[in-house]
UniProtKB/TrEMBL annotation:
Alphabetic keyword roster: Aminoacyl-tRNA synthetase, ATP-binding, Coiled coil, Cytoplasm, Ligase, Metal-binding, Nucleotide-binding, Protein biosynthesis, RNA-binding, tRNA-binding, Zinc
Domain of life: Bacteria
EC number: 6.1.1.7
Cofactor: binding details: Binds 1 zinc ion per subunit.
Function: Catalyzes the attachment of alanine to tRNA(Ala) in a two-step reaction: alanine is first activated by ATP to form Ala-AMP and then transferred to the acceptor end of tRNA(Ala). Also edits incorrectly charged Ser-tRNA(Ala) and Gly-tRNA(Ala) via its editing domain.
Phylogenetic lineage: Bacteria, Pseudomonadati, Pseudomonadota, Betaproteobacteria, Nitrosomonadales
Originating species: Georgfuchsia toluolica
Domain notes: Consists of three domains; the N-terminal catalytic domain, the editing domain and the C-terminal C-Ala domain. The editing domain removes incorrectly charged amino acids, while the C-Ala domain, along with tRNA(Ala), serves as a bridge to cooperatively bring together the editing and aminoacylation centers thus stimulating deacylation of misacylated tRNAs.
Reaction(s) the record says it catalyses: tRNA(Ala) + L-alanine + ATP = L-alanyl-tRNA(Ala) + AMP + diphosphate
Protein name (database record): Alanine--tRNA ligase
UniProt keyword Magnesium, yes or no: no
Gene Ontology biological-process entries: alanyl-tRNA aminoacylation; negative regulation of DNA-templated transcription
Annotated transmembrane regions: none
One cellular component (GO) term of this entry: cytosol
Gene name per UniProt: alaS
Family: Belongs to the class-II aminoacyl-tRNA synthetase family.
Amino acid sequence: MKSAEIRKKFLDYFASKGHQVVASSSLVPHDDPTLLFTNAGMNQFKDVFLGFDKRPYTRATTSQKCVRAGGKHNDLENVGYTARHHTFFEMLGNFSFGDYFKRDAIQYAWELLTEVFKLPRDKLYVTVYAEDDEAYDIWTKAVGLASERVIRIGDNKGARYASDNFWMMGDTGPCGPCTEIFYDHGAEIPGGLPGTPEEDGDRYIEIWNNVFMQFNRDEAGVMHPLPKPSVDTGMGLERISAVLQHVHSNYEIDLMQALVKAAARETNCSDMESPSLRVLADHIRACSFLIADGVIPGNEGRGYVLRRIIRRAIRHGYKLGARAAFFHRMVNDLVVEMGDAYPELKDGQQRVTEVLKQEEDRFFATIEHGMAILESDLAENSGKVFNGETAFKLHDTYGFPLDLTADICRERGVSVDTAAFDSAMARQKEQARAAGKFKMATNLDYSGPTTTFHGYESLEAKGNVL
Ligand code: ATP
Ligand code: MG
Ligand code: MG
Ligand code: MG
Protein backbone atom coordinates (compact mmCIF):
# COMPACT_ATOMS: atom_id res chain seq x y z
CA MET A 1 0.00 0.00 0.00
CA LYS A 2 1.50 3.34 -1.05
CA SER A 3 1.79 6.05 1.58
CA ALA A 4 -0.75 8.23 -0.25
CA GLU A 5 -3.26 5.39 0.08
CA ILE A 6 -2.45 4.87 3.77
CA ARG A 7 -3.05 8.56 4.44
CA LYS A 8 -6.41 8.31 2.69
CA LYS A 9 -7.41 5.10 4.49
CA PHE A 10 -6.72 6.70 7.85
CA LEU A 11 -8.83 9.79 7.10
CA ASP A 12 -11.62 7.68 5.55
CA TYR A 13 -11.74 5.42 8.61
CA PHE A 14 -12.23 8.32 11.01
CA ALA A 15 -14.63 10.08 8.63
CA SER A 16 -16.74 6.90 8.77
CA LYS A 17 -16.76 7.27 12.59
CA GLY A 18 -18.22 10.78 12.40
CA HIS A 19 -14.99 12.80 12.28
CA GLN A 20 -14.74 15.98 10.23
CA VAL A 21 -11.78 15.84 7.85
CA VAL A 22 -9.85 19.09 8.45
CA ALA A 23 -6.95 20.35 6.29
CA SER A 24 -3.43 20.56 7.67
CA SER A 25 -2.57 23.94 9.15
CA SER A 26 0.56 25.90 8.17
CA LEU A 27 3.95 24.90 9.57
CA VAL A 28 4.16 28.44 10.90
CA PRO A 29 1.90 28.91 13.94
CA HIS A 30 1.32 32.63 13.36
CA ASP A 31 -0.75 33.20 16.46
CA ASP A 32 1.16 31.07 18.97
CA PRO A 33 4.35 32.69 20.27
CA THR A 34 5.13 29.59 22.38
CA LEU A 35 5.75 27.48 19.30
CA LEU A 36 8.60 27.58 16.76
CA PHE A 37 7.00 25.35 14.14
CA THR A 38 3.87 23.20 14.11
CA ASN A 39 5.02 20.04 15.91
CA ALA A 40 1.80 18.01 16.23
CA GLY A 41 -1.68 17.60 14.82
CA MET A 42 -3.27 19.11 17.91
CA ASN A 43 -1.59 22.52 17.54
CA GLN A 44 -4.33 23.95 15.35
CA PHE A 45 -6.90 22.80 17.93
CA LYS A 46 -5.09 24.11 21.00
CA ASP A 47 -7.75 26.74 21.75
CA VAL A 48 -10.55 24.23 21.22
CA PHE A 49 -9.02 21.99 23.91
CA LEU A 50 -8.60 24.99 26.19
CA GLY A 51 -12.26 25.94 25.71
CA PHE A 52 -11.50 29.33 24.08
CA ASP A 53 -12.64 28.32 20.60
CA LYS A 54 -15.69 26.40 19.44
CA ARG A 55 -16.00 24.42 16.22
CA PRO A 56 -19.14 23.14 14.51
CA TYR A 57 -17.86 19.59 15.12
CA THR A 58 -16.70 17.63 18.18
CA ARG A 59 -14.65 15.05 16.24
CA ALA A 60 -11.94 15.82 13.70
CA THR A 61 -9.25 13.99 11.73
CA THR A 62 -6.21 15.41 9.96
CA SER A 63 -2.97 14.67 8.22
CA GLN A 64 -0.80 17.44 9.63
CA LYS A 65 2.53 18.77 8.35
CA CYS A 66 4.97 18.82 11.27
CA VAL A 67 8.52 20.04 11.72
CA ARG A 68 10.55 19.04 14.75
CA ALA A 69 13.78 20.97 14.44
CA GLY A 70 13.76 23.17 17.51
CA GLY A 71 11.86 23.89 20.70
CA LYS A 72 10.50 21.15 22.94
CA HIS A 73 10.35 18.46 20.28
CA ASN A 74 13.62 18.60 18.32
CA ASP A 75 14.71 15.67 16.14
CA LEU A 76 17.30 17.41 13.96
CA GLU A 77 20.15 15.56 15.65
CA ASN A 78 18.39 12.21 15.15
CA VAL A 79 18.08 12.50 11.39
CA GLY A 80 20.58 10.28 9.63
CA TYR A 81 21.11 8.29 12.83
CA THR A 82 17.78 6.55 13.53
CA ALA A 83 15.38 4.67 11.26
CA ARG A 84 12.36 6.57 12.53
CA HIS A 85 13.03 10.30 12.80
CA HIS A 86 12.54 13.10 10.29
CA THR A 87 12.67 16.85 10.69
CA PHE A 88 9.52 17.10 8.53
CA PHE A 89 6.88 14.40 8.78
CA GLU A 90 3.15 13.93 8.46
CA MET A 91 1.18 13.22 11.59
CA LEU A 92 -2.14 11.42 11.13
CA GLY A 93 -4.54 12.20 13.94
CA ASN A 94 -8.05 11.89 15.32
CA PHE A 95 -9.43 14.32 17.86
CA SER A 96 -12.33 14.42 20.26
CA PHE A 97 -13.31 17.76 21.76
CA GLY A 98 -15.19 16.72 24.87
CA ASP A 99 -16.88 13.93 22.90
CA TYR A 100 -15.48 10.40 23.29
CA PHE A 101 -12.64 9.59 25.69
CA LYS A 102 -10.29 6.72 26.55
CA ARG A 103 -12.40 3.69 25.71
CA ASP A 104 -13.46 4.74 22.20
CA ALA A 105 -10.06 6.20 21.36
CA ILE A 106 -8.32 2.93 22.21
CA GLN A 107 -10.90 0.82 20.42
CA TYR A 108 -10.74 2.92 17.25
CA ALA A 109 -6.95 2.72 17.20
CA TRP A 110 -7.00 -1.04 17.72
CA GLU A 111 -9.66 -1.64 15.08
CA LEU A 112 -7.86 0.48 12.48
CA LEU A 113 -4.53 -1.24 13.08
CA THR A 114 -5.70 -4.83 13.33
CA GLU A 115 -8.80 -4.93 11.13
CA VAL A 116 -8.33 -2.25 8.48
CA PHE A 117 -4.52 -2.40 8.24
CA LYS A 118 -4.50 -6.04 9.36
CA LEU A 119 -1.40 -5.84 11.53
CA PRO A 120 -0.68 -9.07 13.44
CA ARG A 121 -1.57 -8.67 17.12
CA ASP A 122 1.59 -10.45 18.21
CA LYS A 123 3.76 -7.66 16.77
CA LEU A 124 2.09 -4.96 18.85
CA TYR A 125 2.89 -3.68 22.34
CA VAL A 126 1.38 -0.77 24.20
CA THR A 127 2.44 1.51 27.01
CA VAL A 128 0.15 3.32 29.46
CA TYR A 129 0.82 6.01 32.03
CA ALA A 130 1.84 4.24 35.27
CA GLU A 131 -1.15 5.42 37.31
CA ASP A 132 -3.71 5.11 34.52
CA ASP A 133 -5.57 1.98 35.64
CA GLU A 134 -8.49 2.90 33.40
CA ALA A 135 -6.39 2.73 30.22
CA TYR A 136 -4.67 -0.43 31.49
CA ASP A 137 -8.03 -2.11 32.02
CA ILE A 138 -9.36 -1.07 28.61
CA TRP A 139 -6.33 -2.65 26.93
CA THR A 140 -6.31 -5.84 28.98
CA LYS A 141 -10.07 -6.37 29.40
CA ALA A 142 -12.05 -4.59 26.66
CA VAL A 143 -9.44 -5.17 23.93
CA GLY A 144 -8.16 -8.38 25.50
CA LEU A 145 -4.45 -7.75 25.09
CA ALA A 146 -2.20 -10.04 27.17
CA SER A 147 -0.91 -8.22 30.24
CA GLU A 148 2.76 -8.74 29.25
CA ARG A 149 2.06 -6.57 26.20
CA VAL A 150 0.81 -3.64 28.25
CA ILE A 151 3.67 -1.75 29.87
CA ARG A 152 3.15 0.86 32.57
CA ILE A 153 5.43 3.88 32.29
CA GLY A 154 5.74 6.87 34.63
CA ASP A 155 6.68 10.39 33.72
CA ASN A 156 10.27 9.22 34.06
CA LYS A 157 11.59 12.28 35.75
CA GLY A 158 15.31 11.76 36.08
CA ALA A 159 15.25 8.31 34.51
CA ARG A 160 18.08 7.33 32.19
CA TYR A 161 15.81 6.40 29.35
CA ALA A 162 13.40 8.45 27.38
CA SER A 163 9.93 6.93 27.39
CA ASP A 164 7.45 9.25 28.88
CA ASN A 165 3.71 8.67 28.93
CA PHE A 166 2.69 12.18 29.78
CA TRP A 167 2.51 14.24 26.58
CA MET A 168 3.02 18.00 26.45
CA MET A 169 2.90 20.21 23.42
CA GLY A 170 5.49 22.56 24.90
CA ASP A 171 6.45 23.89 28.31
CA THR A 172 2.94 25.30 28.60
CA GLY A 173 -0.43 24.38 27.08
CA PRO A 174 -2.69 21.33 26.84
CA CYS A 175 -1.26 18.04 28.10
CA GLY A 176 -2.22 14.74 29.62
CA PRO A 177 -1.40 11.07 30.15
CA CYS A 178 -1.08 8.97 27.03
CA THR A 179 -1.03 5.43 25.74
CA GLU A 180 1.35 4.52 22.93
CA ILE A 181 1.40 1.66 20.44
CA PHE A 182 4.68 0.05 19.38
CA TYR A 183 5.46 -2.32 16.52
CA ASP A 184 8.14 -5.02 16.86
CA HIS A 185 10.33 -4.90 13.75
CA GLY A 186 12.08 -8.17 14.69
CA ALA A 187 14.77 -9.70 16.88
CA GLU A 188 17.54 -9.03 14.36
CA ILE A 189 17.28 -5.29 15.06
CA PRO A 190 18.96 -3.93 18.21
CA GLY A 191 16.69 -2.34 20.78
CA GLY A 192 14.56 -3.14 23.82
CA LEU A 193 10.98 -2.76 24.94
CA PRO A 194 9.86 0.71 26.00
CA GLY A 195 10.70 1.42 29.61
CA THR A 196 13.97 -0.52 29.46
CA PRO A 197 17.45 1.00 29.09
CA GLU A 198 17.72 -0.48 25.55
CA GLU A 199 14.54 1.17 24.30
CA ASP A 200 16.36 3.76 22.21
CA GLY A 201 17.15 1.17 19.57
CA ASP A 202 14.94 0.81 16.53
CA ARG A 203 13.47 -2.64 17.17
CA TYR A 204 10.24 -1.62 18.91
CA ILE A 205 9.14 1.48 17.07
CA GLU A 206 6.49 3.78 18.47
CA ILE A 207 3.86 4.19 15.79
CA TRP A 208 0.89 5.86 17.50
CA ASN A 209 0.37 8.04 20.51
CA ASN A 210 -3.11 8.50 22.00
CA VAL A 211 -3.16 11.43 24.41
CA PHE A 212 -5.93 11.93 26.93
CA MET A 213 -6.00 15.71 27.09
CA GLN A 214 -6.97 16.66 30.60
CA PHE A 215 -4.84 19.61 31.75
CA ASN A 216 -3.52 23.00 30.79
CA ARG A 217 -0.02 23.53 32.17
CA ASP A 218 0.76 27.15 33.02
CA GLU A 219 4.10 28.96 33.14
CA ALA A 220 4.64 28.00 36.76
CA GLY A 221 4.11 24.33 35.87
CA VAL A 222 0.71 24.15 37.59
CA MET A 223 -1.81 21.81 35.93
CA HIS A 224 -5.34 23.17 35.52
CA PRO A 225 -8.07 20.72 34.47
CA LEU A 226 -9.45 21.38 30.98
CA PRO A 227 -13.16 22.21 30.67
CA LYS A 228 -13.80 18.80 29.04
CA PRO A 229 -11.59 15.71 28.86
CA SER A 230 -10.59 15.28 25.22
CA VAL A 231 -8.56 13.07 22.91
CA ASP A 232 -5.62 13.93 20.69
CA THR A 233 -3.77 11.26 18.75
CA GLY A 234 -0.78 11.23 16.44
CA MET A 235 0.60 8.53 14.19
CA GLY A 236 3.58 9.18 11.91
CA LEU A 237 2.53 8.42 8.33
CA GLU A 238 6.09 7.39 7.48
CA ARG A 239 6.28 4.96 10.42
CA ILE A 240 2.99 3.20 9.69
CA SER A 241 3.96 3.11 6.00
CA ALA A 242 7.22 1.36 6.88
CA VAL A 243 5.24 -1.28 8.79
CA LEU A 244 2.69 -1.77 6.01
CA GLN A 245 5.34 -1.84 3.28
CA HIS A 246 7.34 -4.46 5.24
CA VAL A 247 10.47 -2.36 5.52
CA HIS A 248 12.26 -1.39 8.69
CA SER A 249 13.27 2.20 8.12
CA ASN A 250 11.05 5.18 7.29
CA TYR A 251 13.61 5.99 4.61
CA GLU A 252 12.79 2.78 2.74
CA ILE A 253 9.12 3.63 2.09
CA ASP A 254 7.96 4.58 -1.42
CA LEU A 255 7.78 8.30 -0.82
CA MET A 256 11.19 8.63 0.83
CA GLN A 257 12.89 6.27 -1.65
CA ALA A 258 11.85 8.55 -4.52
CA LEU A 259 13.67 11.38 -2.73
CA VAL A 260 16.70 9.24 -1.85
CA LYS A 261 16.97 8.43 -5.57
CA ALA A 262 16.69 12.10 -6.48
CA ALA A 263 19.49 12.90 -4.02
CA ALA A 264 21.65 10.14 -5.53
CA ARG A 265 21.01 11.47 -9.03
CA GLU A 266 21.93 15.03 -8.10
CA THR A 267 25.10 14.07 -6.24
CA ASN A 268 26.19 11.20 -8.54
CA CYS A 269 26.23 8.91 -5.53
CA SER A 270 26.02 5.18 -6.21
CA ASP A 271 25.89 4.02 -2.58
CA MET A 272 22.13 3.99 -2.01
CA GLU A 273 22.70 3.17 1.68
CA SER A 274 24.63 6.37 2.34
CA PRO A 275 23.22 8.21 5.37
CA SER A 276 23.89 11.48 3.51
CA LEU A 277 21.25 10.55 0.91
CA ARG A 278 18.74 10.00 3.71
CA VAL A 279 19.57 13.33 5.27
CA LEU A 280 19.08 15.03 1.89
CA ALA A 281 15.74 13.23 1.37
CA ASP A 282 14.65 14.43 4.79
CA HIS A 283 15.92 17.98 4.51
CA ILE A 284 14.43 18.70 1.08
CA ARG A 285 11.00 18.11 2.60
CA ALA A 286 11.56 20.32 5.65
CA CYS A 287 13.13 23.13 3.63
CA SER A 288 10.61 23.12 0.79
CA PHE A 289 7.55 22.95 3.03
CA LEU A 290 8.91 25.69 5.30
CA ILE A 291 9.60 28.00 2.36
CA ALA A 292 6.20 27.21 0.85
CA ASP A 293 4.67 28.26 4.19
CA GLY A 294 6.46 31.61 4.10
CA VAL A 295 9.73 31.08 6.01
CA ILE A 296 12.88 32.45 4.35
CA PRO A 297 16.48 31.72 5.31
CA GLY A 298 17.75 34.41 7.65
CA ASN A 299 19.90 35.06 10.68
CA GLU A 300 17.42 34.66 13.47
CA GLY A 301 14.37 32.80 14.71
CA ARG A 302 12.58 30.57 12.23
CA GLY A 303 14.63 31.81 9.30
CA TYR A 304 17.82 30.77 11.04
CA VAL A 305 16.52 27.27 11.75
CA LEU A 306 15.70 26.98 8.03
CA ARG A 307 19.15 28.29 7.05
CA ARG A 308 20.79 25.74 9.36
CA ILE A 309 18.83 22.87 7.80
CA ILE A 310 19.68 24.01 4.27
CA ARG A 311 23.38 24.31 5.13
CA ARG A 312 23.43 20.88 6.71
CA ALA A 313 21.92 19.53 3.47
CA ILE A 314 24.49 21.33 1.33
CA ARG A 315 27.29 19.95 3.49
CA HIS A 316 26.04 16.41 2.95
CA GLY A 317 25.96 17.06 -0.80
CA TYR A 318 29.48 18.48 -0.55
CA LYS A 319 30.56 15.34 1.29
CA LEU A 320 29.27 13.27 -1.63
CA GLY A 321 31.19 15.43 -4.11
CA ALA A 322 28.82 18.27 -5.11
CA ARG A 323 30.68 21.54 -5.70
CA ALA A 324 27.83 23.71 -6.96
CA ALA A 325 24.13 24.21 -6.27
CA PHE A 326 22.25 20.90 -6.59
CA PHE A 327 19.75 20.73 -3.73
CA HIS A 328 17.08 22.91 -5.40
CA ARG A 329 16.85 20.39 -8.23
CA MET A 330 15.21 17.94 -5.81
CA VAL A 331 12.18 20.22 -5.39
CA ASN A 332 10.51 18.91 -8.51
CA ASP A 333 10.81 15.31 -7.30
CA LEU A 334 9.16 16.34 -4.05
CA VAL A 335 6.33 18.07 -5.88
CA VAL A 336 5.73 14.91 -7.90
CA GLU A 337 5.49 12.87 -4.67
CA MET A 338 3.54 15.26 -2.45
CA GLY A 339 2.09 18.05 -4.58
CA ASP A 340 -1.33 16.42 -4.86
CA ALA A 341 -1.77 16.06 -1.11
CA TYR A 342 -0.31 19.53 -0.41
CA PRO A 343 -1.20 21.93 -3.28
CA GLU A 344 0.73 24.79 -1.61
CA LEU A 345 3.86 22.93 -2.63
CA LYS A 346 2.84 22.94 -6.28
CA ASP A 347 1.82 26.59 -6.13
CA GLY A 348 5.08 27.57 -4.48
CA GLN A 349 7.37 25.33 -6.52
CA GLN A 350 9.11 28.08 -8.47
CA ARG A 351 9.68 30.33 -5.47
CA VAL A 352 10.89 27.44 -3.30
CA THR A 353 13.37 26.47 -6.01
CA GLU A 354 14.66 30.03 -6.36
CA VAL A 355 15.04 30.64 -2.63
CA LEU A 356 16.96 27.38 -2.23
CA LYS A 357 19.17 28.08 -5.25
CA GLN A 358 20.11 31.52 -3.88
CA GLU A 359 20.92 30.13 -0.47
CA GLU A 360 22.98 27.37 -2.08
CA ASP A 361 24.97 29.78 -4.26
CA ARG A 362 25.70 31.85 -1.20
CA PHE A 363 26.99 28.92 0.87
CA PHE A 364 28.85 27.21 -1.97
CA ALA A 365 30.94 30.42 -2.20
CA THR A 366 32.46 29.78 1.26
CA ILE A 367 32.01 26.09 2.04
CA GLU A 368 35.21 24.90 0.39
CA HIS A 369 37.43 27.28 2.30
CA GLY A 370 35.56 26.62 5.54
CA MET A 371 35.82 22.85 5.13
CA ALA A 372 39.58 23.15 4.54
CA ILE A 373 39.98 25.07 7.80
CA LEU A 374 37.79 22.62 9.65
CA GLU A 375 39.64 19.60 8.29
CA SER A 376 43.06 20.99 9.07
CA ASP A 377 41.99 21.82 12.62
CA LEU A 378 40.61 18.31 13.04
CA ALA A 379 43.84 16.81 11.69
CA GLU A 380 46.15 19.02 13.76
CA ASN A 381 44.24 18.62 16.94
CA SER A 382 43.65 14.91 17.30
CA GLY A 383 41.99 15.41 20.72
CA LYS A 384 38.34 14.89 21.43
CA VAL A 385 37.38 18.56 21.59
CA PHE A 386 37.21 20.93 18.63
CA ASN A 387 38.56 24.42 19.17
CA GLY A 388 35.71 26.85 19.99
CA GLU A 389 37.59 29.82 18.51
CA THR A 390 37.85 28.01 15.18
CA ALA A 391 34.17 27.08 15.38
CA PHE A 392 33.40 30.77 15.86
CA LYS A 393 35.60 31.78 12.92
CA LEU A 394 33.80 29.20 10.77
CA HIS A 395 30.50 30.65 11.91
CA ASP A 396 31.44 34.28 11.50
CA THR A 397 33.46 34.23 8.30
CA TYR A 398 32.36 31.11 6.44
CA GLY A 399 28.70 30.83 7.40
CA PHE A 400 29.02 27.51 9.28
CA PRO A 401 26.32 27.51 11.99
CA LEU A 402 27.61 25.99 15.22
CA ASP A 403 25.39 22.94 14.88
CA LEU A 404 26.83 22.26 11.40
CA THR A 405 30.39 22.24 12.73
CA ALA A 406 29.23 20.08 15.63
CA ASP A 407 27.53 17.66 13.23
CA ILE A 408 30.70 17.21 11.16
CA CYS A 409 32.75 16.76 14.33
CA ARG A 410 30.24 14.23 15.68
CA GLU A 411 30.88 12.02 12.65
CA ARG A 412 34.52 11.84 13.82
CA GLY A 413 33.65 11.30 17.48
CA VAL A 414 34.75 14.83 18.40
CA SER A 415 32.76 17.39 20.41
CA VAL A 416 32.99 21.19 20.16
CA ASP A 417 34.14 23.53 22.92
CA THR A 418 30.89 25.50 22.96
CA ALA A 419 31.92 27.58 25.99
CA ALA A 420 34.84 28.99 23.99
CA PHE A 421 32.52 29.52 21.03
CA ASP A 422 30.10 31.46 23.24
CA SER A 423 32.82 33.69 24.67
CA ALA A 424 34.17 34.44 21.19
CA MET A 425 30.64 35.37 20.14
CA ALA A 426 30.12 37.55 23.22
CA ARG A 427 33.47 39.26 22.68
CA GLN A 428 32.60 40.08 19.08
CA LYS A 429 29.21 41.48 20.03
CA GLU A 430 30.85 43.67 22.65
CA GLN A 431 33.39 44.97 20.13
CA ALA A 432 30.66 45.69 17.61
CA ARG A 433 28.67 47.56 20.22
CA ALA A 434 31.71 49.56 21.28
CA ALA A 435 32.40 50.51 17.69
CA GLY A 436 28.77 51.61 17.36
CA LYS A 437 28.15 49.27 14.48
CA PHE A 438 24.75 47.90 13.70
CA LYS A 439 24.22 44.62 11.98
CA MET A 440 22.27 44.93 8.77
CA ALA A 441 19.63 42.32 8.10
CA THR A 442 20.72 40.16 5.20
CA ASN A 443 17.62 39.81 3.12
CA LEU A 444 17.12 37.78 0.01
CA ASP A 445 15.10 39.22 -2.85
CA TYR A 446 11.74 37.96 -1.88
CA SER A 447 8.26 39.22 -2.45
CA GLY A 448 6.00 36.65 -0.76
CA PRO A 449 4.72 36.62 2.83
CA THR A 450 7.39 36.71 5.51
CA THR A 451 7.36 35.41 9.03
CA THR A 452 9.05 36.43 12.22
CA PHE A 453 9.40 34.38 15.36
CA HIS A 454 10.24 36.09 18.62
CA GLY A 455 10.04 33.18 21.04
CA TYR A 456 13.66 32.05 21.05
CA GLU A 457 15.99 35.04 20.93
CA SER A 458 19.42 34.35 19.43
CA LEU A 459 19.29 30.58 19.06
CA GLU A 460 22.88 30.58 17.92
CA ALA A 461 24.22 32.62 20.82
CA LYS A 462 22.70 30.32 23.40
CA GLY A 463 24.19 27.32 21.63
CA ASN A 464 21.01 25.37 22.30
CA VAL A 465 21.17 24.07 18.77
CA LEU A 466 23.24 21.18 20.09
P1 ATP B 1 9.88 9.14 19.47
O1 ATP B 1 9.84 8.66 20.89
O2 ATP B 1 10.07 8.02 18.48
O3 ATP B 1 10.86 10.26 19.28
P2 ATP B 1 7.68 10.84 20.14
O4 ATP B 1 7.23 10.13 21.38
O5 ATP B 1 8.57 12.00 20.32
O6 ATP B 1 8.42 9.76 19.14
P3 ATP B 1 5.03 11.92 19.77
O7 ATP B 1 5.30 13.28 20.25
O8 ATP B 1 4.32 10.99 20.67
O9 ATP B 1 6.43 11.25 19.25
O10 ATP B 1 4.30 12.04 18.33
C1 ATP B 1 3.27 11.16 17.86
C2 ATP B 1 3.75 10.29 16.72
O11 ATP B 1 4.36 11.05 15.66
C3 ATP B 1 4.79 9.26 17.08
O12 ATP B 1 4.19 8.14 17.68
C4 ATP B 1 5.41 8.94 15.74
O13 ATP B 1 4.64 8.00 15.00
C5 ATP B 1 5.37 10.27 15.01
N1 ATP B 1 6.65 10.99 15.11
C6 ATP B 1 7.11 11.72 16.15
N2 ATP B 1 8.28 12.28 15.89
C7 ATP B 1 8.60 11.93 14.62
C8 ATP B 1 9.68 12.24 13.75
N3 ATP B 1 10.67 13.03 14.13
N4 ATP B 1 9.66 11.71 12.50
C9 ATP B 1 8.65 10.91 12.09
N5 ATP B 1 7.60 10.59 12.88
C10 ATP B 1 7.56 11.10 14.12
MG1 MG C 1 10.57 12.21 19.94
MG1 MG D 1 8.25 8.48 22.25
MG1 MG E 1 5.31 9.56 21.79
